[in-house]
Amino acid sequence: MNSLPHGQIRRLELFGKYDLTQKGEIGALFRALSPGGPATIDMSRVTHVDSSFLYELTRLRTRLVPHRVTLLVRSESIRRLLKRVKFDALFEIQTLF
Questions:
Q1: Which of 30, 42, 43, 89 is most deeply packed, by most CB within 10 A?
Q2: What's the half-sphere exposure (Cβ side, CA atoms, 13 Å) at 55?
Q3: Closest of 49, 80, 20, 77 to residue 41, by C-alpha
Q4: Any residues with CB less than 8 A from the CB of 69 and at least 6 apart, and which?
């Protein structure tokens, strides 16, 4: 993924289930986002995440400081999990209906 002009938001759309078996794949996707600006991770079609996915999100958040990272979430269970692990302090979480 190439760097975008100042102010443009990079976006990744994810779908399905993310667990330890996809750790390398999700890590590679997140590493492809250059740290040059804000990013949006569209998780509206994600059905399951585990701790390995959360770990990769924290690595992404660390790489993109000081830029905003927005998570778009539709699943109530994923939204609750993100709030339970206090990711609402690290990310802007938007719930889609």
A1: 43
A2: 10
A3: 49
A4: 38, 39, 40, 41, 60, 61, 90, 91, 92
Between CA 60 and CA 74 the distance in angstroms is 21
| Structural domains of the chain, ranges and CATH numbers in brackets | 10-95 (3.30.750.24)
Q: Which residue has the tokens 């002009």?
A: 5
Q: Are 60 and 32 in contact (CB under 8 A)?
A: no
Q: Which run of H or of E encompasses 45?
A: strand 39-49
pLDDT digits (tens, 9 = 90+) for 16-58: 999 999 999 999 999 988 888 999 999 999 999 999 999 999 9
